[in-house]
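Exercise 7. Predict the structure of Ergot alkaloid biosynthesis protein from Photorhabdus hindustanensis.
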Amino acid sequence: MQNNILVTGGKGKTGRLISELLTQNGIAHRIGTRTPESGSEIAFDWMRPDLAEAAFSGIRSLYIVAPTNTSDHGSVVPPLLEIALEKGVQRFVLLSASSLASGAPMMGKIHAWLEANTPEWTVLRPTWFMQNFYEQRHLVTINEENAIYSATGDGKVGFIDALDIARAAVSALTSNRTINKDFILTGPETLSYGNIAAALSKALGRKISHRNLTTSELASRLQQNGLDETYSKILSAMDNDIASGTEERITDGVKALTEVNPCSLDIFIQRECHRWKV
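Solution. The predicted structure, encoded as tokens:
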């Protein structure tokens, strides 16, 4: 199937990888971004409906990354998706999260809207990214304190490589079949933060420890590092969910979409080892 695809969040964690994969396969696409810099990039902002018609013109398939500057996704995103339908977009692929079913807050509201209003849709619901350990707060503490802080206890997660999410998205965007389904995406094994610390210790040649905190201690630490109180409490609550076992599961979602098994943590660390101080 020939495609002209718009990748929103095209400079983000998954969007950038999707664009690279599409380019490698010679598939025409545009990158939607608030700050376009090249010919393949076009101005797009979920908070700017005036940009939508130009961005969606000639597009058949749309990759949706919800805005990060609001949690009211059910009010902000669907009006622009209405414009997309009017401009002829047929296929919609949403990046959501494993914890958000259809109708849940945030991306769950977009999920429900897609089910009810679009001819072709896929919702990708990945669990926690392996990339988190070389980005954001974990990179700093791994490099400076030889430690990973969380409130996850011994809870386990099917951590996933963002590249596997990108491959799944490309499949959903370009498949010859209509999918109309959501997929919980995980890696091949469930791992605790202690397991992650042990794997990093082995690869980096120095002891990395997991330091488990209470949710209130973690929230306080996050606020000290610059996050606002509300977001700090949300992240701490998500760690508590992990401790309770809500993310301890493995699915075949990646293989169902890509026909390839997801990347393991050991292979991921080998590939990305340069990200940390050795």
